[in-house]
Design goal:
Blueprint: H1 3-40, H2 54-64, H3 73-85, E1 89-96, E2 103-109, H4 111-134, H5 152-161, H6 164-201
Antiparallel strand pairs: 1-2
Helix pairs in contact: 1-3, 1-4, 2-3
């Protein structure tokens, strides 16, 4: 293995370690965001509540990340325990599993947890806004290239999974591109009109 490959391998190992730490830290935010979404949209389960259990959360993370991140229940339950002890979540009896005869434990936001989740969402948006504005116009990339052959149905699926700040960035960059296109069209129309007038003179 030459020096370049050694550096690449070493860098990949370090990045993988950092990404794993970032994912573990992100689970708290994801849990609260997911429960806040269920609460706002009155997304209830068979118990008639906006609760969920750890395995369901792991499935949701995998679904949202399109299979790129599959957290284990072993990584999720310590965080649920932490949020429960902080009175952010409360436990309610779940559904009895036919295979094991055991009853799952469901988690939902407490009134305090709801306030915490709302404030966390506001703080996240403010941070993202400050970060984007601090970049002085260097916004995140588009969700997909303007003019691509993505159907409206496919685009809608992408939009539904994108965070607020990414959607806003996508919208603003498209608006900017549309303005440029309109200016180009205006110039072309003027140029064509000018050429027609010149032809008539000849």
């Amino acid at each position: 293995m030459n020096d370049t490959k050694k550096l690449d391998h070493k860098a990949e190992e370090l990045v993988d370690k950092w990404i794993e730490r970032y994912r573990r830290g992100s689970l708290r935010f994801f849990i609260l965001h997911f429960l806040l979404y269920k609460h706002r949209h009155k997304d209830t389960n068979s118990l008639g509540t906006s609760s969920f259990h750890g395995y369901k959360l792991a499935q949701k993370v995998e679904e949202v990340t399109q299979g790129k991140w599959k957290p284990t229940t072993a990584s999720i339950y310590p965080i649920l325990k932490e949020l429960y002890e902080a009175e952010v979540l409360e436990k309610i009896p779940g559904v009895e599993q036919q295979e094991t005869g055991r009853t799952t434990i469901e988690y939902k936001l407490t009134p305090f947890g709801l306030k915490t989740a709302q404030k966390l969402e506001e703080a996240r948006k403010e941070f993202a806004k400050a970060f984007i504005e601090g970049k002085k116009g260097h916004l995140p990339p588009l969700l997909f290239p303007l003019g691509s052959n993505i159907s409206p149905e496919e685009a809608k699926k992408i939009f539904l999974k994108a965070p607020d700040e990414v959607l806003c960035s996508h919208r603003d960059q498209i608006k900017e591109k549309i303005e440029h296109i309109h200016k180009h069209l205006e110039y072309i129309e003027k140029e064509l009109d000018h050429r027609k007038k010149e032809e008539k003179k000849d």
